[in-house]
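Input record, target 12 of the design panel.
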Protein backbone atom coordinates (compact mmCIF):
# COMPACT_ATOMS: atom_id res chain seq x y z
CA UNK A 1 0.00 0.00 0.00
CA UNK A 2 1.51 3.40 -0.99
CA UNK A 3 2.65 5.65 1.81
CA UNK A 4 1.44 9.18 2.43
CA UNK A 5 4.77 10.46 1.08
CA UNK A 6 4.34 8.46 -2.14
CA UNK A 7 0.82 9.78 -2.61
CA UNK A 8 1.98 13.36 -2.16
CA UNK A 9 4.88 12.85 -4.53
CA UNK A 10 2.55 11.51 -7.20
CA UNK A 11 0.39 14.64 -7.00
CA UNK A 12 -2.63 12.92 -5.46
CA UNK A 13 -4.26 15.29 -2.99
CA UNK A 14 -5.09 13.97 0.45
CA UNK A 15 -8.38 15.70 1.21
CA UNK A 16 -9.98 16.04 4.66
CA UNK A 17 -12.72 13.51 3.97
CA UNK A 18 -13.65 12.66 7.60
CA UNK A 19 -15.71 15.82 8.08
CA UNK A 20 -17.74 14.95 5.00
CA UNK A 21 -17.97 11.29 5.96
CA UNK A 22 -19.57 12.23 9.28
CA UNK A 23 -22.33 14.26 7.64
CA UNK A 24 -24.52 13.75 4.56
CA UNK A 25 -23.34 11.47 1.77
CA UNK A 26 -25.07 10.92 -1.60
CA UNK A 27 -26.60 7.51 -2.14
CA UNK A 28 -26.51 7.59 -5.95
CA UNK A 29 -24.76 9.56 -8.72
CA UNK A 30 -25.21 13.32 -8.53
CA UNK A 31 -26.63 15.05 -11.59
CA UNK A 32 -24.81 18.31 -12.46
CA UNK A 33 -26.87 20.18 -15.04
CA UNK A 34 -24.94 22.24 -17.59
CA UNK A 35 -27.53 24.43 -19.37
CA UNK A 36 -25.45 24.69 -22.55
CA UNK A 37 -24.18 22.44 -25.32
CA UNK A 38 -21.03 20.35 -24.75
CA UNK A 39 -17.69 22.06 -25.31
CA UNK A 40 -18.44 25.39 -23.69
CA UNK A 41 -16.90 26.81 -20.55
CA UNK A 42 -19.55 25.56 -18.13
CA UNK A 43 -19.25 22.08 -19.61
CA UNK A 44 -15.45 22.06 -19.37
CA UNK A 45 -15.30 23.43 -15.83
CA UNK A 46 -18.22 21.28 -14.68
CA UNK A 47 -16.55 18.10 -15.87
CA UNK A 48 -13.19 18.90 -14.28
CA UNK A 49 -14.58 19.94 -10.90
CA UNK A 50 -17.39 17.37 -10.95
CA UNK A 51 -15.02 14.45 -11.38
CA UNK A 52 -12.96 15.53 -8.38
CA UNK A 53 -16.05 16.24 -6.24
CA UNK A 54 -17.45 12.83 -7.09
CA UNK A 55 -14.27 11.18 -5.87
CA UNK A 56 -14.55 13.08 -2.59
CA UNK A 57 -18.24 12.32 -2.09
CA UNK A 58 -18.00 8.65 -3.07
CA UNK A 59 -20.51 8.92 -5.93
CA UNK A 60 -19.87 10.04 -9.52
CA UNK A 61 -21.01 13.48 -10.63
CA UNK A 62 -22.73 12.99 -13.98
CA UNK A 63 -22.92 15.92 -16.41
CA UNK A 64 -26.30 16.51 -18.04
CA UNK A 65 -26.25 19.02 -20.91
CA UNK A 66 -29.66 20.71 -21.21
CA UNK A 67 -29.13 23.56 -23.66
CA UNK A 68 -31.68 26.11 -24.79
CA UNK A 69 -33.18 29.54 -24.15
CA UNK A 70 -29.88 31.04 -23.01
CA UNK A 71 -29.59 28.56 -20.11
CA UNK A 72 -33.20 28.96 -18.91
CA UNK A 73 -34.27 25.40 -19.77
CA UNK A 74 -31.50 23.75 -17.79
CA UNK A 75 -31.74 26.20 -14.90
CA UNK A 76 -35.49 25.66 -14.59
CA UNK A 77 -34.94 21.90 -14.47
CA UNK A 78 -32.50 22.38 -11.60
CA UNK A 79 -34.78 24.80 -9.73
CA UNK A 80 -37.68 22.33 -9.95
CA UNK A 81 -35.63 19.25 -9.00
CA UNK A 82 -36.09 17.51 -5.66
CA UNK A 83 -34.06 19.37 -3.00
CA UNK A 84 -32.19 16.26 -1.91
CA UNK A 85 -28.64 17.14 -2.98
CA UNK A 86 -28.76 14.84 -5.99
CA UNK A 87 -29.28 17.58 -8.61
CA UNK A 88 -27.03 20.63 -8.96
CA UNK A 89 -26.53 23.37 -11.56
CA UNK A 90 -23.39 25.10 -12.85
CA UNK A 91 -24.35 28.21 -14.80
CA UNK A 92 -22.22 31.27 -15.51
CA UNK A 93 -25.32 32.90 -17.05
CA UNK A 94 -27.29 32.74 -13.81
CA UNK A 95 -26.82 36.50 -13.15
CA UNK A 96 -27.46 37.64 -16.73
CA UNK A 97 -30.77 35.92 -17.47
CA UNK A 98 -32.90 38.17 -15.21
CA UNK A 99 -31.51 41.17 -17.07
CA UNK A 100 -32.71 40.05 -20.49
CA UNK A 101 -35.54 37.54 -20.12
CA UNK A 102 -38.79 39.21 -19.08
CA UNK A 103 -40.55 36.05 -17.87
CA UNK A 104 -38.05 33.71 -16.28
CA UNK A 105 -39.86 30.58 -14.98
CA UNK A 106 -37.89 30.67 -11.72
CA UNK A 107 -36.59 33.29 -9.29
CA UNK A 108 -32.80 33.39 -9.53
CA UNK A 109 -32.24 34.61 -5.98
CA UNK A 110 -35.04 32.69 -4.26
CA UNK A 111 -35.11 29.31 -6.02
CA UNK A 112 -31.42 28.42 -5.57
CA UNK A 113 -28.95 28.11 -2.73
CA UNK A 114 -25.22 28.52 -3.22
CA UNK A 115 -22.82 25.58 -3.08
CA UNK A 116 -19.52 26.95 -4.41
CA UNK A 117 -17.89 29.12 -7.07
CA UNK A 118 -15.69 27.06 -9.38
CA UNK A 119 -13.49 29.97 -10.42
CA UNK A 120 -13.21 33.18 -12.43
CA UNK A 121 -11.99 33.95 -15.95
CA UNK A 122 -12.08 36.96 -18.31
CA UNK A 123 -13.69 36.92 -21.73
CA UNK A 124 -11.43 37.24 -24.78
CA UNK A 125 -11.80 39.36 -27.92
CA UNK A 126 -10.90 37.03 -30.82
CA UNK A 127 -11.09 36.99 -34.60
CA UNK A 128 -10.82 34.37 -37.29
CA UNK A 129 -7.22 34.43 -38.61
CA UNK A 130 -8.45 35.54 -42.04
CA UNK A 131 -9.46 38.89 -40.54
CA UNK A 132 -6.64 41.31 -41.39
CA UNK A 133 -6.80 43.13 -38.05
CA UNK A 134 -3.83 42.57 -35.76
CA UNK A 135 -5.01 44.89 -32.99
CA UNK A 136 -8.34 45.73 -31.41
CA UNK A 137 -8.25 49.23 -32.88
CA UNK A 138 -7.70 47.86 -36.38
CA UNK A 139 -10.66 45.54 -35.86
CA UNK A 140 -12.88 48.39 -34.67
CA UNK A 141 -11.98 50.39 -37.78
CA UNK A 142 -12.94 47.48 -40.03
CA UNK A 143 -16.22 46.92 -38.19
CA UNK A 144 -17.17 50.57 -38.40
CA UNK A 145 -16.41 50.67 -42.13
CA UNK A 146 -18.19 47.42 -43.07
CA UNK A 147 -20.31 46.18 -40.14
CA UNK A 148 -22.12 43.70 -42.36
CA UNK A 149 -18.88 41.75 -42.82
CA UNK A 150 -18.16 41.31 -39.12
CA UNK A 151 -20.96 39.59 -37.26
CA UNK A 152 -20.24 38.80 -33.60
CA UNK A 153 -20.69 35.26 -32.28
CA UNK A 154 -22.58 34.87 -28.99
CA UNK A 155 -24.27 32.08 -27.05
CA UNK A 156 -27.89 33.12 -26.58
CA UNK A 157 -29.79 35.93 -24.90
CA UNK A 158 -28.80 36.24 -21.29
CA UNK A 159 -25.42 34.54 -21.61
CA UNK A 160 -22.25 36.17 -20.36
CA UNK A 161 -20.89 36.07 -23.91
CA UNK A 162 -23.90 38.11 -25.00
CA UNK A 163 -23.20 40.68 -22.28
CA UNK A 164 -19.55 40.84 -23.39
CA UNK A 165 -20.62 41.36 -27.00
CA UNK A 166 -23.02 44.16 -26.10
CA UNK A 167 -20.43 45.85 -23.89
CA UNK A 168 -17.91 45.73 -26.73
CA UNK A 169 -20.43 47.04 -29.27
CA UNK A 170 -21.40 49.90 -26.99
CA UNK A 171 -17.90 51.06 -26.05
CA UNK A 172 -16.38 50.49 -29.52
CA UNK A 173 -19.42 52.10 -31.20
CA UNK A 174 -19.82 49.37 -33.82
CA UNK A 175 -23.11 48.24 -35.34
CA UNK A 176 -22.28 44.66 -36.33
CA UNK A 177 -25.06 42.17 -35.62
CA UNK A 178 -24.80 39.58 -32.86
CA UNK A 179 -25.40 35.99 -34.02
CA UNK A 180 -26.46 33.56 -31.30
CA UNK A 181 -25.47 29.89 -31.07
CA UNK A 182 -26.56 27.18 -28.66
CA UNK A 183 -23.42 27.24 -26.54
CA UNK A 184 -19.75 28.10 -26.29
CA UNK A 185 -18.63 25.06 -28.30
CA UNK A 186 -20.84 25.80 -31.35
CA UNK A 187 -20.02 29.53 -31.27
CA UNK A 188 -16.27 28.89 -31.20
CA UNK A 189 -16.65 26.32 -33.99
CA UNK A 190 -18.39 28.99 -36.07
CA UNK A 191 -15.50 31.38 -35.42
CA UNK A 192 -12.89 28.79 -36.39
CA UNK A 193 -14.74 27.93 -39.62
CA UNK A 194 -15.18 31.59 -40.56
CA UNK A 195 -18.97 31.43 -40.45
CA UNK A 196 -18.65 34.46 -38.17
CA UNK A 197 -15.45 36.43 -37.86
CA UNK A 198 -15.49 38.16 -34.47
CA UNK A 199 -16.29 36.88 -30.98
CA UNK A 200 -15.87 37.48 -27.29
CA UNK A 201 -15.95 33.89 -26.06
CA UNK A 202 -15.07 32.59 -22.67
CA UNK A 203 -11.44 31.73 -22.17
CA UNK A 204 -12.40 28.16 -21.31
CA UNK A 205 -14.08 27.52 -24.65
CA UNK A 206 -11.48 29.29 -26.80
CA UNK A 207 -8.06 28.95 -25.18
CA UNK A 208 -7.15 25.80 -27.10
CA UNK A 209 -7.99 27.41 -30.44
CA UNK A 210 -6.05 30.56 -29.52
CA UNK A 211 -2.97 28.60 -28.51
CA UNK A 212 -3.24 26.46 -31.64
CA UNK A 213 -3.60 29.43 -33.99
CA UNK A 214 -7.16 28.67 -35.09
CA UNK A 215 -8.24 31.99 -33.51
CA UNK A 216 -6.33 35.23 -32.96
CA UNK A 217 -6.73 36.88 -29.56
CA UNK A 218 -6.65 40.69 -29.65
CA UNK A 219 -7.44 41.47 -25.99
CA UNK A 220 -8.61 39.99 -22.71
CA UNK A 221 -11.53 41.72 -20.98
CA UNK A 222 -9.62 42.15 -17.73
CA UNK A 223 -7.97 44.77 -15.56
CA UNK A 224 -4.60 43.01 -15.82
CA UNK A 225 -3.06 40.49 -18.17
CA UNK A 226 -3.73 36.84 -17.50
CA UNK A 227 -0.82 34.43 -16.98
CA UNK A 228 -2.66 31.99 -19.20
CA UNK A 229 -2.23 34.29 -22.25
CA UNK A 230 0.53 36.64 -21.06
CA UNK A 231 1.23 38.17 -24.50
CA UNK A 232 -2.37 39.27 -25.08
CA UNK A 233 -3.05 42.88 -23.97
CA UNK A 234 -5.91 43.94 -21.73
CA UNK A 235 -8.73 45.88 -23.33
CA UNK A 236 -7.45 49.07 -21.69
CA UNK A 237 -4.02 48.49 -23.22
CA UNK A 238 -5.74 47.80 -26.55
CA UNK A 239 -7.64 51.09 -26.49
CA UNK A 240 -10.99 49.77 -25.28
CA UNK A 241 -11.06 51.15 -21.75
CA UNK A 242 -14.12 50.00 -19.83
CA UNK A 243 -14.60 46.76 -21.77
CA UNK A 244 -13.97 44.58 -18.72
CA UNK A 245 -16.04 41.50 -17.93
CA UNK A 246 -15.30 38.33 -15.99
CA UNK A 247 -17.01 34.99 -16.23
CA UNK A 248 -17.44 32.95 -13.06
CA UNK A 249 -19.05 29.61 -12.37
CA UNK A 250 -21.58 29.41 -9.52
CA UNK A 251 -22.63 25.92 -8.51
CA UNK A 252 -26.07 25.95 -6.92
CA UNK A 253 -28.75 23.58 -5.60
CA UNK A 254 -32.55 23.89 -5.27
CA UNK A 255 -33.41 26.39 -2.55
CA UNK A 256 -34.99 23.98 -0.07
CA UNK A 257 -32.01 21.64 0.07
CA UNK A 258 -31.38 20.90 3.79
CA UNK A 259 -28.47 22.83 5.36
CA UNK A 260 -26.46 19.67 6.27
CA UNK A 261 -26.65 18.54 2.64
CA UNK A 262 -25.65 22.00 1.39
CA UNK A 263 -22.72 22.04 3.84
CA UNK A 264 -21.44 18.62 2.70
CA UNK A 265 -21.76 19.52 -0.99
CA UNK A 266 -20.10 22.88 -0.43
CA UNK A 267 -17.16 21.33 1.38
CA UNK A 268 -16.70 18.71 -1.32
CA UNK A 269 -16.95 21.09 -4.27
CA UNK A 270 -14.71 23.73 -2.68
CA UNK A 271 -12.10 21.03 -2.03
CA UNK A 272 -12.50 19.85 -5.63
CA UNK A 273 -11.89 23.37 -6.94
CA UNK A 274 -8.66 23.64 -4.95
CA UNK A 275 -7.56 20.17 -6.01
CA UNK A 276 -8.13 20.86 -9.71
CA UNK A 277 -6.89 24.49 -9.75
CA UNK A 278 -3.79 23.79 -11.91
CA UNK A 279 -5.87 21.87 -14.45
CA UNK A 280 -8.58 24.55 -14.51
CA UNK A 281 -5.96 27.22 -15.19
CA UNK A 282 -4.22 25.21 -17.91
CA UNK A 283 -7.30 23.96 -19.78
CA UNK A 284 -9.81 26.72 -19.12
CA UNK A 285 -7.97 29.82 -17.92
CA UNK A 286 -10.02 29.65 -14.72
CA UNK A 287 -8.64 30.49 -11.28
CA UNK A 288 -10.28 30.07 -7.85
CA UNK A 289 -10.86 32.97 -5.48
CA UNK A 290 -11.45 33.02 -1.76
CA UNK A 291 -14.51 34.56 -0.13
CA UNK A 292 -17.31 32.31 -1.37
CA UNK A 293 -17.50 29.65 1.33
CA UNK A 294 -21.16 30.06 2.36
CA UNK A 295 -24.47 29.95 0.47
CA UNK A 296 -25.02 33.63 1.29
CA UNK A 297 -21.63 34.60 -0.17
CA UNK A 298 -22.24 32.66 -3.38
CA UNK A 299 -25.72 34.12 -3.88
CA UNK A 300 -24.46 37.58 -2.87
CA UNK A 301 -22.04 37.42 -5.79
CA UNK A 302 -24.92 36.48 -8.10
CA UNK A 303 -27.03 39.36 -6.75
CA UNK A 304 -24.25 41.91 -7.37
CA UNK A 305 -23.65 40.54 -10.85
CA UNK A 306 -27.33 40.86 -11.77
CA UNK A 307 -27.12 44.59 -11.04
CA UNK A 308 -23.82 45.01 -12.90
CA UNK A 309 -24.81 43.11 -16.01
CA UNK A 310 -28.29 44.61 -16.15
CA UNK A 311 -26.63 48.02 -16.25
CA UNK A 312 -24.36 46.92 -19.13
CA UNK A 313 -27.28 45.63 -21.17
CA UNK A 314 -29.47 48.67 -20.54
CA UNK A 315 -26.62 50.99 -21.53
CA UNK A 316 -26.37 49.02 -24.78
CA UNK A 317 -30.10 49.44 -25.38
CA UNK A 318 -30.99 45.80 -24.73
CA UNK A 319 -34.37 45.32 -23.05
CA UNK A 320 -35.95 42.15 -21.59
CA UNK A 321 -37.87 40.04 -24.10
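The sequence produced for target 12 reads:
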Amino acid sequence: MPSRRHLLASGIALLPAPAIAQSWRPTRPIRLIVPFAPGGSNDIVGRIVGEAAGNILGQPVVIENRAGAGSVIGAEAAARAAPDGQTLLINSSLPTVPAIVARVPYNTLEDFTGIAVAGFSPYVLVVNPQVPARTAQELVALMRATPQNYHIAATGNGSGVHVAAELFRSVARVESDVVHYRGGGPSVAALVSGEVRVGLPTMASSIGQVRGGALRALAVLAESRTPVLPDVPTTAEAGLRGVVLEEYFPIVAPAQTPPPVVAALSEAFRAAVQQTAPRLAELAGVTPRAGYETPAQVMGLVRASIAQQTAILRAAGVQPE
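Confidence is low (pLDDT under 50) at residues 1-22.
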